[in-house]
Design brief:
The structure is a homodimer. Chain A is an alpha/beta fold. Chain A contains twelve helices and twelve strands.
DNA sequence: ACGGATTGCGCAAACGATTGCATTTAATTA
DNA sequence: TAATTAAATGCAATCGTTTGCGCAATCCGT
């Protein structure tokens, strides 16, 4: 701007006004300045702009905290966030907590320092204190949780309809003839653990089945599934179906069941939750609940931007629930 | 800082010096100021710091351009970049080009405006002009390519050893008894297409086999694989093995071959390239070349940071090749 | 006791933009 | 013709830091 001003013999203030099309500068000058700027491809220094406006205007950087990156669901969510953010003129700063509380705290601090306009976060597994999050909101940085929410905090959140997703999936197992349905879930102190279990339980009751505790297990990964499933299948009254909290676990079950010589889905049905890459790779293909990560990401970004731009009141806690969809494939019977 | 200065009755300059531990401030004052700052948890405004230093010091933001996000290899690379960057005090701004040239150009501009200290990029598929990249380097923003490199530009790059990876994989197929090995590759105008094909060709020659053009196809996704493979298998002298440019394609081949009633690996061997989620989900599990995305990401970040910090001369083009590793599983015969 | 070196600190100008207010010039009105 | 008003521009402060330079005060040796 200084150069332009010098070359055109005007003051920097005039240049600034001309470039922002202020009517207080005469039309001729304005156009001359704009043209000169264009020709010498001038573009404003964002840093300086930000410094000047630091009181009034937030930056256009959204912080995103992810527990891990090499993970179908989180990738999809990131994808959704990126899409929505970039469409609305924001960019995203991504950091991975590695499921560590310490790292999460560091990241929050660093993002605060780097003046993000808001943060979208899924907690690390071992996060049990929330001071760092409260500190952020206290500093005026809006927060939106996704996936792993923090029920203790009355913060905005976007989650998937775990309850109905599971309810529908289990109902489908029942209506296709399954009677003894095992449930592999996550620990009940995560919200999604509770919700999915409740969906399972209610679906059983709704169809007149009883809940058998011996069919309920904490198991959310393939290795554990491969370890505990053989014993399940050797029970006197073995399960004739499995509902797993994610596709990975379901794949583990499928591998064991096939290895033991059972035919899927004729003798054993299996249903997962995610609908990621894996679901169409296994044989038979996996019936699963589609988790719509991209949609979750978009909604999360939408809420955050709403908060940032003031469309939503700053202290408002928007709670959105994204509908799931049952995708029926080869590991369950058709009607 | 102003507040501190006022409260302690000194000038802002003194506060600044004290906080940076300048010896030109007396020890007592320095400590008093530092303590006061700590107690009132002051932290410097990064924006202002940057503005002040904009001439000398680059920012600590690395721009990362990815063609897509929901993709095993790219996720791993992003993971590696994030790990290396955060370990060295940088943060990453992630943008997805959606395989679009236009978007790629936009992203470059936006990152330039936002003063990233450098950019790590894998080109979009339809990028054929490179002005935007040249414009960046001309503006002093170092560039590191990964995966899809731009041979026309003499820029830094980190790629996987496509040639040897393929060479070894095909050699493995041959030594386990395969004689007619089909090759499903990507278009030859991508560097990786060429390199992998050459590895395939040379492995054949090395073992005294001839190259049969009818066994070479352009095919890099599952849908295409499922479409063209049946015809391959109906040839008079059908292939007894397939090498596919990625796991996804290999899975497509596997699905078709199994559907047609062939036994894998006894009658047909299959080898992929990636070693992503899919490889352990299919049945039998996939023999594949491990692509080590995380390592690629780390190296890319390492090179970029070297360029930024001046460890590497700014105009230097560092070219790194990450070794692959053959992971033998169930879709190929063992010795 | 006096000149010269320290030592410790503050002034003010940057960094690149924006903006309230003053100022100049021209046009309008009485 | 003088006074009033409107239009176009410039001055200078500001955002939060850093830093070259200069000014006092203290210290040293002689």
């Amino acid at each position: 701007m200084k150069d332009i001003a010098r070359e055109l013999g005007v003051s920097v203030a005039t240049v600034s006004r001309a470039l922002s099309d202020s009517p207080s500068i005469s039309k001729e000058r304005r156009q001359a300045i704009q043209q000169y700027a264009r020709e010498h491809n001038y573009f404003p220094n964002v840093i300086a702009e930000q410094l000047r406006h630091s009181r009034r205007n937030p930056s256009r950087a959204i912080g995103v905290i992810v527990p891990e990156l090499v993970h179908y669901y989180f990738s999809s969510i990131l994808d959704g966030i990126e899409a929505e953010a970039s469409a609305r003129g924001y960019h995203i700063i991504v950091a991975k907590s590695n499921e560590s509380y310490e790292r999460e705290v560091q990241i929050c601090e660093s993002m605060l320092k780097n003046k993000v306009c808001g943060i979208i976060v899924s907690q690390a597994k071992d996060t049990e204190r929330y001071d760092h999050f409260e500190h952020l909101t206290a500093s005026g940085v809006p927060l939106v949780f996704y996936d792993r929410i923090c029920p203790a905090l009355n913060a905005s959140r976007v989650v998937v309809d775990d309850y109905m997703g599971t309810f529908n999936a289990v109902s489908h197992l029942i209506t296709t003839g399954c009677k003894r349905i095992a449930f592999y879930g996550t620990s009940m102190n995560l919200q999604i653990g509770k919700n999915r279990f409740n969906g399972y339980r209610d679906a059983l009751y709704k169809h007149g089945l009883t809940l058998d505790e011996s069919l309920v297990r904490i198991c959310d990964n393939r290795a554990d599934a491969e370890r505990i499933t053989p014993a399940m299948m050797q029970m006197d009254d073995r399960p004739d179906a499995f509902f797993a909290v994610n596709d990975e676990t379901a794949i583990g079950i499928l591998a064991v069941v096939k290895r033991l010589g059972y035919v899927v889905p004729d003798e054993v049905s299996i249903c997962g939750f995610t609908n990621g890459f894996r679901a169409t790779v296994c044989d038979p293909m996996l019936t699963t609940v589609e988790q719509r990560g991209t949609q979750v990401g978009k909604e999360a970004a939408d809420v955050l931007i709403g908060l940032v731009e003031g469309t939503l009141p700053h202290d408002h806690a928007e709670k959105r629930i994204v509908k799931t969809r049952l995708v029926v494939r080869g590991t369950t019977r058709h009607l």
